[in-house]
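Local shape tokens:
==================
===
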Amino acid sequence: MKRPIASTLAVLAALTASACGERVQPAAETAQESGWVMPPEIDAVAASGRELIVRGQASPLGRVVVSGAGDLAYAVGADAEGRFELRVPRPAQDTLFLVEARVGQAGFPAPYRLLIGADPSAPIALLAIGAPTQRLDAGAGLDAVDTDGRAAFVSGRAAPRSAVVVEGSAQRTVTADEAGRWRLAGSGDGSTPITIDGRAYAPAPGGATTPETLQRSGAGWSIAWSSPGGGRQSTWFPDRSATIR
């Protein structure tokens, strides 16, 4: 099912007043007991040599599978509280991983894809059609600009609960949530220059020509991709420059 950015702007407008909403917490019972399976939620990815440690939340005692092209797949079980930690080798090529909960042979996919670049300096992020990208590698300021050609999302990180001034086609102020994440929605193709708290960025989301491959685009990276339902989106990531402490 297509979910273009333009169709989500009205909903996101209500969300941006308080930034990101709260995540749903899993029930205390297992997936087998409840008959309901929670798609995995990834909240952090940390580098450890050539490996990446993927951490998140799933159904208690459930199984999490992260798979790429071909036979590339990694699995781990969640603990009694639903926490999981999975070690994934950095892929030899840029990969959009499918993340799903697995019960027997049935898969329950998360509504996003996990992007891991082959280049250690490339971004790591969660991409979802019609939604702002959630960047997971270290950084501050602007994280990403998403567009479907008609509308765009701008998202980033700052100090928790701080006010962030975003200047583009107009000046707007947004408050970061408790995790320090903020997001804004607007119209256009995402190429409007942006200044965030005095720092200038020149997004170039249309720079990717090879689908599902990260490419250098201006002072950053760009990727174009589509969902099985036909939704299409381009995302631009500025180069990493700062780390929130």
Notes: The radius of gyration is 18 Å. Residues 8-34 have pLDDT under 50 and may be disordered.
